[in-house]
Amino acid sequence: MDFRISVDTGGTFTDMVVLDPAGRLHIGKALTTPERIFAGMQGALAVVAETLGLTVRDLLSRSGILIYGTTRATNAVVTKRTAKTAFLTTQGFKDTLTLKEGGKPGPHDYSFDYPDPYIPRRRSFEIAERIGSEGEVVRPLDLDQARGVLATLKARGIEAVAVSLLWSIANPAHELALGALIEEMLPGIPYTLSHQLVPILREYRRASATAIDASLKPLMQQHLREMAGDLREGGFGGDLLVSTSVGGCQAVEALIARPIHTLKSGPAMAPVAGRAFAAVERMGGNAIVCDTGGTTFDVGLVRDGSLVYTRDSWLGPRWLGDIIGTSTVDMRSIGAGGGSIAWIDAGGLLRVGPQSAGSVPGPACYGRGGDQPTVTDAAMHLGYIDPGYFNGGRLGLDPEAATRVIAALAEKLGRTPDATAAAIMTIANELMIKAIGEITVNEGVNPRESVIVAGGGAAGFNIMPIARELGCDTVILPRLASALSACGMQHSDIVFEATRSRFTDTSGFDTEGVNRALAEIEAELAEFRAGLKGAEGAPARVELVVEARYRAQVWELDTPLPTPRIGGAADVAALAEAFHQAHERVYAVRDAGSPVEFVNWKGRIAIGLFAPPPPPDTVAEPYDPPPDTHRPCYFAETGVRAPTPIFRGAALRPGARIAGPAIIEEPTTTIVVTPGLSADLSAAGNYILRCGG
Amino acid sequence: MDDLDPVLLSVMANRLDGIVREMTNTLLRAARSAVISSARDFSCCLVTGDDQLLAPAEGLPVHIFGCHIQTANMRRYHEGDIRRGDAYLDNDPYGGNTHPADHTFMVPVFFEGEHLFTSVAKCHMADIGNSIPSSYFVLARDVYHEGALVFPGVRIQRDFRNIEDIVRMCRARIRVPDQWYGDYLAGLGSARVAERRLEEFCAKYGVATVKRFIRDWFDYSERRMIDNIRRMPKARLVNTGRSDPLEGILPGGLDLKVIVEIDPEAAEIHVDLSDNPPCVDVGLNTSLGAATSAVVGAIFNALDKDLPRNAGSFRRLRFTYAEESVVAAPKFPHSCSVATTNVSERLVNITQSAFAQLGDGHGLSEGGTGLGVGMAVISGKDHRRGDAPFVNRMMLSTNGGPSSPVADGWVNYAIPVIAGLMYRDSVEVDELKHPVRVESLELVQDSAGAGRQRGAPAQAIGLTPTGNPVTAVISCDGQHAPPRGVVGGHAGTPGETWLVGENGHAERLPNVVQVTWQKGQVLRGRDSSGGGYGDPLQRDPARVLHDVLEGWESREKARMVYGVVFTGEIEDETLAVDVAATAALRAERAGA
């Protein structure tokens, strides 16, 4: 098979990246068509097919693999169009989904209501049973009572069932019995058992994951099967893979069984792309990956060549939304982007956001009725955007409107419009610097020893001053930056995770129990691998990780296992030392005298089905290209508006060196090269932005 | 000196904010005891070298005021002998601190030899060596009976190394010393993280710019405060409230009074706390820091949400205190053991609801108060770990929050001085850590204070030991005087504590109690609920429908209190508002 396709369907755009037999990547974009996703996919495919001189059907039929990234599940949750789901839990704990884990934004803000639970209380049912913390049966399962509850579900037309009982992770007997009862009494109704989906400690997280997963089953089963059917009819005969929230992909049937793993799968692919680009450019193992869109700025990390995961990922805002509960790639999102509105507060200070003009009405320069100055308007006013070439010329812009709203703000501020627009960019940068600062600090990654990989349509406007401010010398901005997630899918592995909860500590280490858990994890991973079609001989990486903490801490740190089994005291000591190191890296202190507690054990297998194209071994010959044209632009660094060289990306060859101030225009992204800094085009076709002092 | 470029002002303020967040994250994640890592009973801030509060974290409102007094004392006690590498511990309620349980770690930050900042991390310790196994001791007759180890600005590190004498003193006296030491490391680590970042901050911008920034940032904050107060009506708000009685000691509770004078012309808010009872021979006396923080926090509830909280905005607040009082003016050796909770909770409620006197659209109702069973300090010996001792405050159930002119109460509110910022304990985590089992944990139907905006409902919990007997210390101030509604809103419902025997017999316990109970017995508690805001008959029927569907309010209460009549049934999801009948019933009620 000669082509490989990856598709990232976002809320607005469907991004398509196609790898051709020569190892070149091609990008296609089209508007997403929510009613039938395949239509938008065909639109984006048509863009690529045309450049390759093929029909869409030819391209599909000559492709061996298609990796599909979807926001369908996320959208269903956000718009509350999931199945009518019942929540079954231990008697006395019906409110687990309502009570959540506490936390509230702002100590003085009483302007918002308490959020509704993911599943309404009226569809939450208590089961007469109780397991204790040691797995002992405190109260046997009352089967008659359970049958009564299931009869009620049937009568009320429930479409999916989430079962999450207290301590099912220590003893799953009652959940399994309920599963069997559901099969018997509600045949065909999809259900999820918490200990099978996420066998982790903490009842809210487990219940939330279980509820979300069950509620997505009817919808995602239909959607993914429909997609497979559409592709087959379109001529595709290869393997359909779906991208997941751990930054990998899986066979479509696996995700039909556990649709929760498709949540946030798009953003999870950005660090995968970042890792691949950093490797291609041989820039070391630490990367900060930024994806700048119109309304959000997403940031994630690659640490020592590995993705960074979290269990603290929320659908919707933290505390107000619902926790996903499964392990996901740690991608943080803040509301800052091209649409963020600039305003002056009562103390006379210029502020940017958190209000956004969104895409409707959008920035003033979109000409759709927006009358508030936004970051995009500032960039427009400063001359960074060619009004006729924005988004490949598909969206005509109104520069006068941008200048009008900027000038009005400037008058209130008592500064020139140019200085005001530059100040808006600086303040917007600050929000992003803070977001990057938080994730790097949290994870103990030093920006000074990392490379930034920047993606998203709006990344190029301000990534250079941001990098300089963080002390980060180098930014990689791929030519296909605007489709970073779809690029990531081209480099993704098939990834599968297995988890066991086995609580123990270093003072009385449960060697037997832990080794049993590890054996079960490895068996589950091996079974997964054996069941994978076409993966014979493919390279596989297995990582074993334990969530650990000091005695009495409540928050765990992911700690890699130094040995695959715990043989004796030396192995326990090595494991404790691995935790001490992780703790010191993240919190700057270690408590060598304290016992270390171990909570959840995880195994992750990554199977490299398709090797990424080898990095080019050529060194591009440096040269200084002539600018395509000049345009007056204003830079804060120089404080003047002056004719600035404009380069069209299509005309640049590897080795091109461009000194700032300058603008580089690619069809789907624009790079502002800051005065005093420079950019060059690498042999692999990425822009390398030099931001060091 | 010229004014700083406003963009640079923003940028530098943002950087400081980032430093405090980093401190907060370090402390939260690295701490040992649930009271810090779950309940978030801590706060971090930056104070200038000349003792002005510069940047507070989004920490508990009850910690916001007083750190500058503690840093000033540190400088006074150690004048001429403070240097880089030092760290200080203070928990003296007579020296600006909130109460002895709050161990405050202070690190003086030097740049080019000059003491420019002090980073401050304040954490509520699970145990402080009191004479009873709780850091809250309501019945403490005086500081000697209370028994806390007190550190008035004591040096605990020199040249970045512990002064081990102090650590040994604490280990010799504090229960579960490893837990304390873990929290000590977390608190100190947090202050040290800030030190590193502040040194980088100074190196980047230079001392002159940093000083100009500090001056301009305070001026900016003051301008914001002036603008905000000028938009408020001129008023003198007088409000009173009462704390729960203490059996045999304070049979009538304490009558408390707060007077708030808003002067838009002078752009100033004056708070008079002077008309309050004298000190009492129990641990209820509030320190200057705790009481002032409670009132300042409640005032900020009435101001713009993004108003900076620092010495600049505080310039526009003025306080009058009594010479000697249970409110903000303790006299040695009276105990301030529970200064941050009981009376302070009431002060928050009295102050925030006083603003409702300005009319509909202002202020808040009263929020649920009291640390009940679900927030008790439990201790004992863990049979699963060779009878190892344990002590901790739980955060399993919480009171319901107050309602505002636009929103219903926040369910996970805890108490007014925590204001919803804490995390709840996981039932499974608590059962793993302590030899107890949670029998049930649920919202209480029909408990909420009714109103156009409804208070948050109460929660109920049952706890039983799984091995040895367990001792709970409950210092609840929320079982007699329930949270009040405002602007026509109804009061919430008070909390209760019960001990249920093996035979099922339930005995009501007093609101302040130390109880040891056995396997087979259940300690049952119910927290209080938030008061309502506005007339319940004006509540949007769609909201009432939602409450009934969700079981927060019953159909009967909807009819009787909210005047909303339904058709259909909850069970088959056909429940709907009977618009005509509702209009008729509401008209009849309004006329009655």
What does the model show?
- The complex is a heterodimer of chains A (693) and B (592).
- Chain A is an alpha+beta fold.
- Among the domains of chain A are: 84-200, no CATH class; 344-422, no CATH class; 494-607, no CATH class.
- Helix content of chain A is 32%, strand content 26%.
- In chain A, strand 17 and strand 18 (322-323) form a beta hairpin.
- In chain A, helix 3 (72-78) crosses helix 8.
- The longest helix of chain A has 31 residues, at 203-233.
- The two termini of chain A are 47 Å apart.
- The model of chain A has no long low-confidence stretch (mean pLDDT 90).
- Chain B is of the alpha+beta class.
- Chain B has three domains: 6-220, no CATH class; 364-536, no CATH class; 540-591, no CATH class.
- Chain B has helices at residues 6-30, 34-37, 67-77, 143-146, 164-173, 177-205, 207-230, 288-300, 311-314, 342-354, 427-433, 541-549, 555-560, 579-591; strands at 42-48, 53-56, 87-90, 102-111, 114-124, 154-158, 161-162, 235-242, 255-263, 268-272, 317-320, 377-382, 388-393, 436-443, 459-465, 470-475, 496-500, 506-508, 512-517, 522-526, 566-567, 576-577.
- In chain B, the strands form five sheets. Chain B has a seven-stranded antiparallel sheet with strand order 2-1-5-4-3-6-7, with helices on both faces.
- Chain B starts with 5 loop residues before the first helix and ends with a helix.
- The mean pLDDT of chain B is 94.
- Chains A and B meet through helix 13 and helix 17 of A and helix 1, helix 6, helix 7, helix 11 and strand 14 of B.
